[in-house]
Amino acid sequence: MTAKTWDRKDLLGLQELSASEIETILDAAVIFKSSSKISSALSGSTAAFLFSEPSTRTRSSFEVAARRLGAEVLGFSVASSSLLKGESLLDTLRNLEAMGVDYFILRHEHSGVLESLAPNTRASLINAGDGAHEHPTQALLDLFTLREKKKTLKGLKVVIVGDILHSRVARSNIHGLKKLGARVTVCGPSALIPGDIEKLGVAASHDLDAALKGADAVNVLRLQLERQNQNLITSLSDYFESYGLTPARLAAAPGCVVLHPGPINRGVEISSQAADGPNSLILEQVKNGVAVRMAVLSLIGQWRKRNA
Fold it and tell me: Residue 99's CB: how many other CB atoms inside 10 A?
């Protein structure tokens, strides 16, 4: 049964959420996607964005979501802030909170950094990606997109292919998919799959063609080119030959839909024909990201009003 209310100040990850909490967010997103009306749910509130890593889709869709809910958006630049002078992240949050910020949407390079911050601020914290730990709203929009297309996640076979080792998107997706009843296979070179990944209840494969057989969906992860100086793969062309998603590979799984969190490295982890083909839901993911993030902000806003 879906939870009737949301009972959390923050959204730090999907590992800590129950299936009913995840479904509460997805159900709320359905309502926001179906309505073109501008909401006043966060009227009088202020949202600030602290991103110490680059972002296009996540930051932009969160800003659109916050504005559509009536919140003021604080344009905050980490690169020109006192963080570069040695001020702690917690002190930065507390100072901005003193100015009236109610919601912080944070992206940080260190895994798990939000867990120590959340109990020490009255404002609500939403994880927009922390290191290789979690990216909960990306996973939520992936789940939403899959549920919308396939009607249910229970029993689906979902393949996550690529750099699992460094991927916060993979971890959040695994937590969410497993809790909603999907079967998950991760696939990639042995150097890019953690040795203990099966402890999360997933199957591991190093053969994409075999993994795709019978798959209902494949989520293609960006190959993190900035990490390839670690010599984890032999070459980009070899990687594409073994793990690049193409229409020919998709032919082995009729009806298999294609997801990608972006940004896309065309010709590295996916061909343009697969990224733009009839099975692709990539732009639908981007569209759904606004509705999902509106749902998250709105539900947390309802919690804040109840606990004011």
Answer: 9
Token pair of 88, please? 């702690």
The sign of the CA dihedral 217, 222, 223, 224 is negative
CA distance 285 to 55: 16
Give me the mean pLDDT over the 160-175 stretch.
97
pLDDT of residue 296 exceeding 70, the answer is: yes
- CB 128: neighbour CB atoms within 10 A? 26
Does the global pTM surpass 0.90? Answer: yes
Take residue 14 and report the two structure tokens written for it.
């999907």
Side chain identity at residue 254, one-letter code: P
Beta-carbon contacts of residue 129 (< 8 Å; ≥ 6 apart): 53, 55, 58, 107, 108, 135, 138, 168
Q: How far is CA 210 from the centre of its chain?
A: 26
* Token couple for 180: 């909603």
Closest to 259 in 3D by CA, of 292, 285, 290: 285
Distance CA 299, CA 302 (A): 5
Can you read off the two tokens belonging to residue 16? 């800590």
Which CB contacts under 8 angstroms, 24+ apart, belong to 122-126?
A: 122/97, 123/93, 123/96, 123/97, 124/9, 124/10, 124/300, 124/303, 124/304, 125/9, 125/10, 125/11, 125/12, 126/10, 126/11, 126/62, 126/296, 126/297, 126/300
Which residues, at least 6 apart from 225, have a Cβ–Cβ distance to it below 8 Å? 236, 265, 268
Element (H, E) at 218: strand 217-220
Other CB atoms closer than 10 Å to residue 191's CB: what's the count?
12
All domains of the chain in start order, with CATH: 19-135+289-306 (3.40.50.1370), 136-286 (3.40.50.1370)
Give the Cα separation of 63 and 222 in Å (integer). 23
Mean pLDDT of 267-280: 97
